[in-house]
């Protein structure tokens, strides 16, 4: 059996009661999709009303730069296409309806509030908005896959977040999401560039304080 190190952190932020995940479960680590999303249902039962999710993502949009922060306006659930949807199986009516709508997965009012907050903080220069696409991982995407996802309208790609958002919306939680663009995807067969985890970690360290600041000020206004 594996030891769970994704403990919750309890406290207050800007006078608001909060619970935070200290890390997350990833599907590519071998966890069942139900385990990946289990914390969200716990949050719901605790009385949480708003879920803020963050992730590291590769930039598919040619206008994005490494270090940009993308507000997620929608997502593409590739594992869901293959039957890996956290809502598969018997529906528990205590959490939500059998067939929840996902056309409003990301709260527009929260996005507008976040945009104004970013402007007040002087973050407009590196704030973007776009569509996040989830792949199961852990291998990075091929050039052909990148080209396909660009045609589908994806702006950024990662290996997390979407299952949690699906369950959160099933529970009726408001959702706001941020993707940190940690690298540009390789979409040119003649390129010598390679996706690597070291670049992801380096960019994450560079922008961590900015994301913390944005989330903190956003929570204050919710």
UniProtKB/TrEMBL annotation:
The record's section on Gene3D superfamilies has: Nucleoside phosphorylase domain (3.40.50.1580)
InterPro entries from the xrefs? Answer: Nucleoside_phosphorylase_d, Nucleoside_phosphorylase_sf, Pur_Nuc_Pase_Ino/Guo-sp, Purine_phosphorylase, Purine_phosphorylase-2_CS
Domain Nucleoside phosphorylase span(s) in chain numbering: 15-217
Q: Which reaction does it catalyse?
A: inosine + phosphate = alpha-D-ribose 1-phosphate + hypoxanthine; 2'-deoxyguanosine + phosphate = 2-deoxy-alpha-D-ribose 1-phosphate + guanine; 2'-deoxyinosine + phosphate = 2-deoxy-alpha-D-ribose 1-phosphate + hypoxanthine; guanosine + phosphate = alpha-D-ribose 1-phosphate + guanine
What are the GO MF terms of this UniProt record?
purine-nucleoside phosphorylase activity
Kindly indicate whether the keyword Cell membrane belongs to this entry: no
Please give a single GO biological process term from the UniProt record: purine ribonucleoside salvage
GO cellular component terms, semicolon-separated:
cytoplasm
Say which domain of life the source belongs to.
Answer: Eukaryota
UniProt keywords, alphabetically: Glycosyltransferase, Purine salvage, Transferase
State the pathway, as annotated in the record: Purine metabolism; purine nucleoside salvage
Q: Any idea of its EC number?
A: 2.4.2.1
Transferase keyword on record: yes
Q: Which family does it belong to?
A: Belongs to the PNP/MTAP phosphorylase family.
- Tell me how this protein assembles: Homotrimer.
Q: What is this protein called?
A: Purine nucleoside phosphorylase
